[in-house]
Write a structure and sequence with these properties.
The complex is a heterodimer of chains A (about 950) and B (about 450). With about 950 residues, chain A is α+β, with helices and mostly antiparallel strands. Chain A is built from 37 helices and 13 strands. Chain A starts with 13 loop residues before the first helix and ends with a helix. In chain A, about 45% of the residues are buried. About 10% of the residues of chain A have low confidence. By secondary structure, chain B is α+β, with helices and mostly antiparallel strands. Chain B has a domain of about 130 residues: 2-Layer Sandwich (Beta-Lactamase). About 5% of the residues of chain B have low confidence. Chain B contains ten helices and 25 strands. Chain B starts with a strand and ends with a strand.
Chain lengths: ~950, ~450
């Protein structure tokens, strides 16, 4: 009875003794010896020398002994293929045994012996066993085909076993069906192209019937197989869903998850208007919640999957926040996953509860968990604006605890909060600075340095603080070094007088004493910028940062869709496609969600409708740029800042007065600067004249498309054009146009929700632009935007925003945010929206100005095919605030002298030549004179647009 | 599918090793295996060894606490569960159904426990031949097969294999049962006395604010059935499920109003695989042929109208910086005729507690310095009663700025009713082939409500 004794034999000469015992005549002794052999094998001893002796024991009536020998064979046959042949006869004989258990045992074991010579002999017995009268033998034989395929795929095909296996799908016994499905699915994975499973409505029906009858494991095989099927239309999808939903009440979590996979996949095909769709959504929540009462390991698998489901269909679990609250005795891996989901589900409705929980978690013992909890508080602040203040005060409380890692984590997240809500919470900076000394992790140090640099003007001793970091510059990690470099440059640009020495110190540390190319490059960029054009440097380094997105760690949509197809499997646990962790070609077939049927949504083409993301055209996910490369990033995204070509400025390596020339103008730029000329650069003055040449040729194309009729009461309004296609913005489509009416400019937007989820929390922001256009009021979308709904909004604009020259001049970069993400697009606005109402110049003034502007600033244009007479043109132009100052008739031509003024005070003078009497010549000639000649091109385009519409 | 299954002891020594696929083990191992094929170790065995060692080194011997039950080492995935100090690990190189692997590992534990009791190193060593036999039967090429002990025991026993002396009929009966629709029950079971026991076991969870507001409460319950019934009995289980009662009540309006009060809303439930799920889905009736002996018929969860057996009213007062006064009242909230048992109230104390004085009306209370808590135990308490404890806690003056987080007061108890309000209405047994009827079956029903996480913040 006590088999444990077999594990204890360790004496020498053991093999020899075993050999003797194996050859003993007594059955009992033989059996004992084989047990000893198996025990030795288990603990890792090499007992392969006993091969012939063990195989000799195979010919026995004792089933137990036989099984032990088979176990030995499976392990050692490969190493002694010639001897393994000795066993073949017994196998073949056993396959004919009257006892079905023995027949099955023989065919099962034979399949496990991976010796080519044996597999040859396997074919005949296998063929018989596949048609055996006993279901137990058939179900074993079905699996054996998969085994054989693994050894010799060609043989399986040649022998026609695949067809026999396919026939077994229609077997009367549910377990045979299940095993056949499992075997076929696995074989099909290695032959992605061969339509092995050949799923069609009939076979699906058979599978669904077997589903009700087979074991829990069989149900999993069948459900996993069903998930690969592509229903032909939404009706079929619905009927399969209906038959799969009862599985959600199964006690086996794997059955539940596989059923969830089928439902999540087929739901894609159902129209949202269906009652059934809503019912299905409701049915999914309870079983997912129930999975959380399973054993911890399964909870972990479930949570990893729920994480995906929450990202794909947030509506399913949005009311179930409480079940994700962490329990005291949850294993750490469960706690961390729950926390992750809590953040994803956080919304305005439940934020108070979530915050209270997170605060509790921040006092726990596990360091990773506490850190994640602190980070979560920051993420809540960024996600739910209303809670930001409470989150910040919670974080401050936590900083007061002085627990080292809590403080560091808090500082990292506060940096992100500053990014999200600029100029709101900077009052806490003082508290943060108190904790400078306790920071020993690079991320926290870098975050703190960023804060000091960014708000240098508010921190009295910013230079001292940064200097203290500089002492150990070379011992810092790269991210701290980079951040320190940038922070000191920022400080210098803000307080140039006191910090010249500091900046030179850091530049030379970064460029001369460092081996890190990134650091050196950044050092050189700053150096050159500062030495050649400090104003440009300021625009680059202190440029406005892009918004950070509120949802972090979102899985890229295409990957998410693929992972949804892998619910329950390892891929869903790792959140990686199988190709990332499976070797070779096995199981790496790319899966994708089924397309929504065209009948339900005719507006969308079938290719783009389902997931909105055919390969190559996926929406870009712009993740939160929580990293510290904000400045550099902005440099990349922003328009090129023009300056004198680099070639002209020699880089003075190590020169002490490298900033000599630049410093004056830099200080002069600040009104309170000491000395320096009081020269305020006009918005366009920094741009060399040669850039004013024809730009924005794309603009005319844009207006060529417009053929609508503008309103006469205000200036001409172009019809709305699509600015942001739904595909690039996770389903949000934005089209719009600009109008000017009675002195106010507005942006008329049309927002269409083409996604499957409700959109809320809209906001808009403009990048700095040439004319300082900025929203004069927040973007007001009063009700949440439901799927397929469109809302029209008129957003009033002002021209008092920050100014930065754009390329082309009338380019406007816009960021629109909603609950899903932040999206960026750029559009060109017609210049005439900037023509102000008091743009009529006095005659005398006009003449004087015309003469005053140098001739090289005059630009000539032709407006073709415009058969208008002087009066019509004049009145048309006047409605768009281009005023006729005088009119002359010279040699049968009408000359109109006109003036207009832009919102930023730039005057443009025009001479328009019309030949009324000559029908063959309908071209108008336009001469424009302006002190800022780069606007001429756009004024001309405005003329053309107004006159032709 | 599962490539191999290993059982280790706490030291990381292998007790059981069963390899189903030779892809497990890293490529490196495969190379070295080819290299050493003429050497002392046969190739395949060495590869498996490699996976075995990888798990030992990276998980069992890892210094850190286990951070995930799934580990990927060199493109090989390891799933593990731990029972006392025994590790069970399933290994694979494919994208397997992870939930299935864990369910299988649990099932494997259940099967082993059903054969030889506790899963311990000694028991495993003593039964290693049996375990290999079971592994051969319930996992074929890594595909889980029928793993119901009821069926397995018909042909795999601790005493060796039965089947060699069986008649042909017996053999085919075994195979049809193992592969059949009712894999969990064998035919021909006979009892002199047909008897069944139903246990409704609930754990009630609560989080309450100091002001007595319920922050969250739910009951997770299980219906465990022990059946000793002859033949293949068809059973039908009924409870006061709101949906069923309302459906039935439609005919007679009176009844709806009467029974409506007593019915309960079940948030979700799951069933043992013997229950016909499609029937539950369409008719919400629970019908099944039970396995022989004990099994868990269903699990459920409720969140509405929960009877909270106890109410804890805390009062904590800080007297100066070195003293705390705590008063806690507990009130029992159920029928006076019922008795709650094993009541324990745990009142946390600050870390700098130097001394505690306790006075309680009932039971015994003790300050346990090692647990930083006052533990108050009461053996029994009837319904609609109330009891009180007061304590004075002396604190050592500290300069620790960190405020004491005041963990919640937790409670344990056991009550003889179901806090969810669930009632078993009937369990009907039909066995058409044998001559016993529903009336002949002796039925027992028991309700036990236990505390889950039952906390009141203070």
């Amino acid at each position: 009875m006590t088999d444990s004794k077999y594990f204890t034999t360790t004496k020498k000469g053991e093999i020899f003794e075993l050999k003797a015992e194996l050859n003993s005549d007594k059955k009992e002794k033989k059996k004992e010896a084989v047990k000893k052999v198996i025990a030795s094998m288990t603990v890792g001893k090499d007992v392969s020398a006993l091969f012939p002796d063990v195989v000799n024991c195979m010919q026995t009536d004792n089933l137990e002994l036989k099984k032990l020998v088979y176990l030995y064979l499976m392990n050692y046959a490969k190493s002694q293929p010639d001897m393994a042949i000795m066993a073949v006869n017994t196998f073949v004989k056993d396959c004919e045994d009257p006892n079905p258990l023995i027949r099955a045992l023989a065919v099962r074991t034979m399949g496990c012996i991976r010796v080519d010579k044996i597999t040859e002999y396997l074919c005949e017995p296998l063929r018989k066993c596949l048609k055996d009268e006993d279901p137990y033998v058939r179900k074993t034989a079905a699996v054996c085909v998969a085994k054989l395929h693994d050894i010799n795929a060609q043989l399986v095909e040649d022998q026609g076993f695949l067809d026999t296996l396919k026939d077994l799908i229609s077997d009367s016994n549910p377990m045979v069906v299940a095993n056949a499905v499992a075997a076929l699915s696995e074989i099909a994975e290695s032959h992605p192209s061969s339509n092995l499973l050949d799923l069609n409505p009939q076979s699906i029906n058979k599978l669904l019937t077997a589903l009700n009858e087979c074991t829990e494991w069989g149900q999993i095989f069948i459900l996993d197989c069903l998930a690969n099927y592509m229903p032909k239309d939404d009706r079929e999808a619905q009927s399969i869903c209906e038959r799969v939903t009862p599985r959600l009440s199964h006690a086996n979590s794997a059955v539940v998850l596989s059923a969830v996979k089928v439902l999540m996949k087929f739901m894609e095909m159902l129209s949202k208007d269906l009652d059934y769709y809503g019912t299905l959504l409701k049915k999914l929540a309870p079983p997912l919640v129930t999975l959380l009462s399973a054993e911890p390991e399964l909870q972990y698998v479930a949570l990893r999957n729920i994480n995906l489901i929450v990202q794909k269909r947030p509506e399913i679990l949005k009311h179930e926040m409480k079940v994700f609250f962490v329990k005291y005795n949850d294993p750490i891996y469960v706690k961390l996953e729950k926390l992750d989901i809590m953040i994803r589900l956080a919304s305005q409705a439940n934020i108070a509860q979530v915050l209270a929980e997170l605060k509790e978690y921040a006092t726990e013992v596990d360091v990773d968990f506490v850190r994640k909890a602190v980070r979560a508080i920051g993420r809540c602040a960024i996600k739910v604006e209303q809670s930001a203040e409470r989150c910040v005060s919670t974080l401050l409380d936590l900083i007061q605890t002085k627990v080292n890692y809590v403080v560091q984590e808090a500082i990292v997240v506060i940096k992100d909060i500053f990014r999200k809500y600029p100029n709101k919470y900077e009052s806490v900076i003082a508290t943060l600075c108190e904790n400078l000394d306790s920071l020993d992790e690079p991320e926290a140090r870098a975050a703190m340095i960023w804060i000091v640099g960014e708000y240098a003007e508010r921190i009295d001793n910013a230079d001292e603080l940064l200097e203290s970091f500089l002492e150990g510059f070379h011992d810092e990690s790269t991210q701290v070094q980079l951040q320190l470099l940038t922070a000191i440059v920022k400080l210098f640009l803000k307080k140039p007088t006191e910090t010249q020495e500091l900046v030179q110190q850091v530049l030379s540390l970064a460029t001369q004493d460092s081996d890190n190319p990134d650091l050196r490059d950044r050092g050189y960029i700053y150096w050159r910028l500062l030495s050649t054009d400090p104003v440009a440097a300021k625009e680059v380094v202190l440029a406005e940062k892009p918004l950070i997105s509120e949802e972090t760690d979102l899985i890229e949509p295409t990957l998410l869709d693929e992972l949804i197809c892998y619910i329950g499997t390892l891929a869903s646990v790792y959140h990686k496609p199988p190709s990332a962790f499976v070797e070779g070609g096995r199981g790496v077939v790319h899966k994708s969600l089924p397309p929504r049927t065209a009948s339900s949504e005719s507006a969308e083409s079938p290719e783009t409708a389902p997931t909105g993301a055919p390969p190559g055209e996926q929406p870009d996910v712009i993740p939160a740029q929580g990293d510290l490369l904000g400045d550099l990033l902005n440099l990349d995204l922003g328009p090129p800042v023009s300056g004198p070509p680099l070639a002209t400025s020699s880089v003075q390596m190590g020169a002490v007065d490298l900033l000599g020339g630049g410093l004056d103008s830099l200080m002069g730029d600040e009104p309170e600067g000491i000395g320096g000329t009081n020269f305020v650069a006009p918005p366009t003055a920094a741009v060399p004249a040669n850039l004013g040449a024809p730009i924005g040729s794309g603009l005319s194309d844009l207006f060529d498309l417009t053929s609508g009729v503008g309103t006469l009461s205000g200036s001409y309004v172009a019809p709305k054009a699509v600015w942001l296609p739904a595909m690039k913005a996770k389903g949000l489509e934005i089209s719009g146009t600009f109008t000017r009416q009675v002195g106010s400019i507005s942006m008329d937007l049309q927002l269409t929700n083409k996604a499957l989820q409700v959109m809320t929390d809209f906001a808009i922001q403009f990048n700095r632009n040439s004319f300082g256009l900025a929203p004069a009021a927040p973007l007001q979308v009063h009700a949440p935007l439901s799927p397929n709904q469109t809302v029209e909004i008129s957003l009033p604009l002002s021209t008092v925003g920050s100014v930065m020259k754009m390329e082309p001049l009338n380019n406007l970069q816009v960021a629109v945010k909603n609950n899903i993400d932040v999206f960026y697009f750029s559009t060109l606005y017609p210049l005439h929206i900037l023509f102000v109402e008091d743009g009529k110049m006095d005659r005398q003034m006009f003449l004087a100005t015309w003469k005053d502007i140098p001739n090289e600033n005059e630009a000539q244009f032709q407006i073709r095919d415009c058969p208008l007479n002087a009066e019509a043109a004049s009145s048309k132009l006047q409605s768009s605030n281009i005023f006729t100052v005088a009119k002359r008739n010279v040699e049968g031509q009408d000359m109109l002298y006109q003036s207009l003024k832009l919102t930023n005070g730039i005057w443009v003078l025009a001479e328009l030549r019309i030949q009324p009497g000559n029908p063959s010549c309908t071209d108008l000639e336009l001469s424009l004179k302006c002190r800022a000649p780069e606007v001429s091109q756009h004024v001309y385009q405005a003329y053309e647009t107004i006159l032709k519409n | 599918m599962i490539g191999g299954l290993f059982i280790y002891n706490h030291k990381g020594e292998v007790l059981i090793s069963r390899v189903y696929r030779d892809d497990i083990g890293s490529r490196q191992a495969a190379d070295s295996a080819v290299f050493s094929s003429s050497g002392p170790f046969p190739g395949e065995w060495l590869e498996a060894r490699n996976a075995v060692d990888a798990f030992r080194v990276n998980v069992i011997h890892a210094r850190q606490q286990v951070r995930s039950p799934v580990t990927n080492i060199a493109r090989t995935s390891f799933f593990h569960v731990k029972r006392s100090n025994i590790w069970l690990a399933a290994v694979t190189k494919q994208n397997v159904n992870a939930a299935m692997v864990f369910e299988f590992l649990y099932k494997m534990c259940d099967v082993m426990a059903a054969y030889f009791g506790k899963i311990s190193e000694e028991n495993i060593k003593n039964n290693f031949v049996l375990i290999y036999e079971l592994l051969d039967e319930i996992l074929d090429f890594g595909y889980p097969q029928n793993s119901e002990t009821g069926a397995l025991k018909t042909f795999i026993t601790q005493q060796g294999i039965k089947s060699q002396h069986q008649t042909k009929e017996e053999q085919s009966q075994i195979t049809s049962q193992v592969t059949g629709q009712i894999g969990w029950r064998r035919e021909g079971i006979k009892y002199r006395r047909n008897e069944l026991f139903l246990d409704v076991l609930e754990s009630v969870n609560l989080l309450m604010s100091p002001q007595g507001q319920v922050l969250s409460a739910h009951v997770s319950g299980r219906v465990v059935m022990k059946s000793y019934l002859s033949g293949m009995p068809e059973c039908k289980f009924g409870m006061n499920d709101k949906i069923v009662i309302e459906k039935q009540g439609k005919g007679t309006a009176d009844e709806t109003s009467k029974s409506g009060k007593q019915s309960i809303a079940i948030d979700d439930c799951t069933f043992h695989q013997c229950v016909r799920l499609s029937k539950f889905d369409s008719e919400r009736s629970i019908s099944f042929i039970p396995p022989d002996g004990e099994f868990e018929l269903m699990r459920y969860r409720t969140t509405k109208d929960i009877i909270l057996p106890f109410r804890v009213i805390p009062l904590v007062r800080e007297v100066g910086r070195t003293k705390l006064e705590v008063k806690v009242v507990i009130k029992s909230n159920f029928k006076p005729s019922l008795l709650a048992q094993k009541i324990e109230v745990r009142i946390p104390t600050p870390l700098n507690t130097s001394g505690v004085q306790v006075i309680c009306m009932k039971g015994k209370a003790k300050y346990k310095a090692s647990e930083n808590a006052i533990v108050w135990k009461i053996k029994r308490m009837a319904g609609m009663k109330e009891s009180q404890i007061s304590a004075e806690i002396e604190l050592l003056p500290t300069n620790d700025k960190k405020k004491w987080a005041r963990p919640p007061i937790s409670m344990n108890f056991e009550v003889p009713f179901a806090p969810s309000g669930l009632k078993v209405r009937y369990l009907k047994v039909f066995e058409p082939k044998l001559n016993y009827s529903d009336h002949d079956v002796i039925k027992w029903v028991r309700y036990i409500g236990r505390s889950g996480i039952y906390e009141t913040r203070c």
